[in-house]
Write a structure and sequence with these properties.
The longest helix is centred in the middle third of the chain and has 26 residues. With 184 residues, this protein is α/β, with parallel strands linked by helices. It is built from eight helices and four strands. A four-stranded parallel sheet has the order 3-2-1-4, sandwiched between helices. Helix 3 crosses helix 4 and helix 6 packs across helix 7. It is 57% helix and 10% strand. The chain is globular.
């Protein structure tokens, strides 16, 4: 699968890049300058130097991808504007791809291999969404940047991260693998 990735040189994005590559995906990393392009190229990704506020440039890269992951964040008051710009570009690019696929007869639906798989995926998405909403956005960013201001939601986010990590490491949140995953 061809995946476009923003923030590939950041903390979260660099780990996402590694995971994508380990699972055989072809990654195009949108970066802001040639120095970052060299970094992601050295890690095996295809660099695309682009300003994330430049909708046509971002949409051009996304038009060549099967999916997109947005992890870039300046971590300041401009974060919401950047997120909005990227979402606009993604919406435009993938809407155009949808129309093209429909017109050329290449559109097809893919689904889950069982109701259990669907419920597991939907449950994970719901938990991630609820966690993000309770932490007022990105829980890692909220925890790391908000602690310096002694903001209460930051302490809640960090406590949730630590408790979730501890529970996961102790196996309290263990989920049986799906039959398809166990066969790999």
């Amino acid at each position: 699968m061809k995946v476009a990735l923003t923030g590939a040189t950041g903390f979260i994005g660099s780990h996402v890049l590694t995971e994508l590559q380990e699972h055989g995906h072809e990654v195009t990393a949108l970066v802001r300058d040639n120095a970052q392009a060299d970094l992601v190229a050295a890690r095996g990704a295809t660099p695309a130097v682009a300003d994330l506020y430049d909708r046509p440039a971002v949409a051009g890269v996304l038009g060549q991808a099967d999916g997109a992951i947005h992890t870039a964040s300046p971590g300041d008051a401009t974060s919401a504007g950047l997120d909005s710009a990227v979402v606009d570009a993604v919406t435009g690019a993938f809407a155009g791809s949808l129309v093209t696929a429909l017109l050329t007869g290449r559109f097809h639906l893919e689904g889950f291999n069982s109701p259990r798989h669907m419920l597991r995926s939907a449950g994970g998405a719901a938990l991630m969404g609820a966690g993000g909403a309770m932490a007022y956005g990105c829980s890692i960013g909220q925890g790391l940047t908000g602690l310096s201001t002694l903001a209460l939601p930051s302490f809640v986010a960090v406590a949730g991260i630590l408790l979730g990590t501890a529970a996961g490491l102790r196996g309290a949140l263990r989920v049986q693998p799906l039959a398809a995953e166990a066969a790999r």
